[in-house]
């Protein structure tokens, strides 16, 4: 009735992603974190081995991987570097509304080109004055003949400006609430579309985060996903799915915190013996392991529901909130295990804590996950 065995293909995929993190990500993660630069060569290599934009369906030229597959990749990327995870997985986030609300023709038109060369997608919902209250968007879209004209500013957009395509959510009537929203695919080179890189992030500094500016940006009506008024719901259905890989990436961070702690605890000596022999330290690694195992069960279940075509918003919100909080605690305790050395960049654990903080904020804050969970319980 319950089977936790991965298929042979999934085991291979997991191994591929694990090797990729070990060879291509971990050796350069600290450098790009310090430089606050996106390592484009990792995007190219991910493309070469089939780890980039892997959810694009076969009919659009992609691999058509499912959510469990995507999460297996996500856990390994999170283990390697959560900033680089965000570069690659924010692209999946940009693809998902096209899978949720696009026709087969639109999927071929917009996603096909992403399978031909290393390229990224982006998802632009948040704005300077509204993040959690996503329906209160100010960016406008006005129909002019057969074209949408977009004006406004989007904030905090991962891969923003670098992405070949960006799904932009806009309102056709600011008084109309979510029922007046529309989802539009905007190509990178659209006239009037510009971006400003946001600098000095606390963590995930290898990812590009941008403010996007739209000044009379015109896109053809064929770039509209779904119907008029569907924009907000397409965004919500997307996030119900993409919050699950965030949970998986968080489990990856917690697993890294655990591995680094075990290694250090066996090496470091105090009072004439390895600190691993103190029960206080043993309990910290036991606690981390408990979090990794429970977190993984949660994201596996939520991802499995997606792949079965079953309702998954409630489980997705639980997995995202639980795993990001569990991983935050694991990274925090990993610093404690490392003592003073944990507080400086010589060991990777301080970066884990800076990176994982964002997992509690993006893709909907953990307060918003609790809004989703409690609404499901109390409706
Ligand atoms: N699926 C389908 N429809 C949904 C839905 C869902 N999950 N959630 C809501 N809806 C529908 C409702 O049924 C309702 O429809 P009707 O009016 O036809 O009945 C409509 O949408 C409005 O619903 P609500 O009244 O519940 O909406 P709300 O305004 O109260 O907002 C919310 C709900 C959960 C707080 C939502 O605004 C939300 O999720 N906010 C957080 C935004 C967010 O997660 N942003 C992440 C940006 S991306 C990012 O961060 C990426 C990254 O870093 C890489
Ligand atoms: P606010 O909505 O102003 O919230 C402030 C505080 O109030 C939070 O603690 C929040 O939980 C709380 N709060 C608000 N409403 C409620 C409520 N109803 N109940 C309880 N508490 C509440 N967005 C995108 O669209 N695309 C991206 O690619 C993207 N990437 C990002 C990358 C980075 C590095 C960052 C920092 C953000 C990114 N975001 C992106 C934006 C992110 O999704 C928002 O920051 C997030 O949704 C919160 O919105 P806000 O910052 O406006 O906070």
TrEMBL record:
Listed EC numbers: 1.3.8.7
Class in the EC hierarchy, top level: oxidoreductase
Keyword Oxidoreductase: yes
Domain Acyl-CoA oxidase/dehydrogenase middle: 122-217
Entry-linked InterPro entries: Acyl-CoA_DH_CS (IPR006089), Acyl-CoA_Oxase/DH_mid-dom (IPR006091), Acyl-CoA_Oxase/DH_mid-dom_sf (IPR046373), AcylCo_DH-like_C (IPR036250), AcylCo_DH/oxidase_C (IPR009075), AcylCoA_DH/ox_N (IPR013786), AcylCoA_DH/ox_N_sf (IPR037069), AcylCoA_DH/oxidase_NM_dom_sf (IPR009100)
Tree of life domain: Bacteria
Cofactor(s) this protein cannot do without: FAD
Family to which this protein belongs: Belongs to the acyl-CoA dehydrogenase family.
Protein name: Acyl-CoA dehydrogenase
Organism per entry: Deinococcus budaensis
């Amino acid at each position: 009735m319950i089977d936790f065995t991965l298929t042979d293909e999934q085991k291979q995929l997991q191994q591929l992603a694990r090797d990729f993190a070990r060879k291509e990500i971990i050796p350069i993660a600290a450098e790009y974190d310090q430089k606050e630069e996106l390592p484009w060569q990792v995007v190219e290599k991910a493309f070469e081995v089939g780890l980039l934009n892997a959810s694009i369906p076969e009919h659009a030229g992609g691999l058509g991987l499912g959510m469990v597959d995507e999460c297996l990749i996500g856990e390994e990327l999170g283990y390697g570097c959560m900033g680089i995870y965000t570069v690659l997985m924010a692209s999946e986030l940009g693809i998902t509304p096209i899978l949720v609300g696009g026709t087969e023709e639109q999927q071929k038109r917009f996603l096909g080109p992403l399978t031909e060369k290393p390229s990224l997608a982006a998802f632009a919902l948040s704005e300077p004055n509204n993040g959690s209250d996503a329906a209160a968007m100010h960016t406008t879209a006005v129909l002019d003949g057969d074209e949408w004209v977009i004006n406004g500013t989007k904030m905090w957009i991962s891969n923003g400006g670098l992405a070949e395509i960006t799904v932009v959510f806009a309102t056709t009537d600011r008084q109309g609430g979510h029922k007046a929203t529309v989802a539009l695919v905007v190509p990178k080179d659209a006239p009037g579309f510009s971006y400003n890189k946001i600098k000095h992030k606390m963590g995930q500094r290898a990812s590009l985060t941008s403010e996007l500016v739209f000044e009379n940006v015109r896109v053809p009506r064929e770039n509209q996903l779904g119907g008029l008024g569907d924009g907000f719901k397409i965004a919500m259905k997307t996030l119900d799915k993409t919050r699950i890989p965030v949970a998986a990436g968080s489990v990856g961070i917690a697993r890294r915190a655990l591995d680094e702690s075990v290694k250090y605890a066996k090496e470091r000596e105090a009072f004439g013996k390895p600190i691993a022999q103190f029960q206080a330290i043993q309990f910290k690694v036991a606690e981390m392991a408990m979090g990794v195992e429970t977190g993984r069960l949660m994201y596996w279940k939520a991802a499995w529901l997606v792949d079965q075509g079953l309702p998954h918003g409630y489980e997705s919100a639980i997995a995202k909130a639980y795993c990001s909080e569990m991983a935050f605690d694991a990274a925090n305790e990993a610093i404690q295990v490392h003592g003073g050395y944990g507080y400086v960049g010589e060991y990777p654990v301080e970066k884990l804590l800076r990176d994982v903080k964002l997992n509690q904020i993006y893709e909907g804050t953990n307060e918003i996950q609790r809004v989703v969970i409690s609404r499901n319980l109390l409706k």
